[in-house]
UniProtKB/TrEMBL annotation:
Annotated InterPro entries: ArsR-like_HTH, AsnC-type_HTH_dom, Dimeric_a/b-barrel, Tscrpt_reg_AsnC-like, Tscrpt_reg_AsnC/Lrp_C, Tscrpt_reg_HTH_AsnC-type_CS, WH-like_DNA-bd_sf, WH_DNA-bd_sf
UniProt entry tagged with the keyword Transcription regulation: yes
Domain of life: Bacteria
Gene source species: Pelagimonas phthalicica
Protein name per Swiss-Prot or TrEMBL: Leucine-responsive regulatory protein
UniProt xrefs under CDD domains: HTH_ARSR (cd00090)
Domain HTH asnC-type: 3-64
Length: 151
């Protein structure tokens, strides 16, 4: 699906606040409600718009520690990778996981209550899958976090 300027405006508006009404979005993009709804529906069907969620305040809920976990592995077989990915998907502490090019094979963003909770996560992970080297970096301060794309 090809998107135009109006679609971009709708997406920018939804990225800012997906809970706003169709009337508010239509007013913001200079259209009426029905065409805006049809565009949103088409973008959902095309997969441009995915699940709508709520952004929670992690610290207010007691998740005060964010670790970036660098993983090197000497295992590159499909069986190991499937087991590793299953272990990551089963752990709600893992907010993001990326396979990388370069010296580090994977990077994880892990959100937990504290360092002790990270250690519980770490011990469980290494008991399930063999990794060559793990380096955990504690984020001291979140300077910027967004899910918005630069449309």
């Amino acid at each position: 699906m090809k998107i135009d300027d109006t679609d971009r405006k709708i997406l920018i508006s939804l990225q800012r606040d997906a809970a706003q009404s169709l009337d508010e979005i239509a007013r913001e993009v200079g259209s009426s409600k029905t065409p805006v709804w049809n565009r949103i529906r088409k973008m959902r069907e095309a997969g441009i718009i995915g699940a709508q969620t709520v952004i929670l305040d992690a610290e207010a809920l007691g998740f005060e520690a964010t670790f970036f976990v660098l993983i090197r592995t000497s295992e590159h077989e499909a069986d190991w990778q499937q087991k590793f990915l299953a272990a990551l998907r089963a752990r709600p502490e893992v907010q993001e996981a990326h396979r990388l090019a370069g010296d580090i094979d994977y990077i994880l963003k892990v959100r937990v209550e504290n360092a002790r909770a990270y250690d519980v996560f770490y011990q469980a992970l290494i008991s399930e899958v063999k990794v060559h080297n793990v380096t955990a970096l504690l984020s001291m301060e979140e300077i910027k976090a967004t899910t918005a794309l630069p449309l």
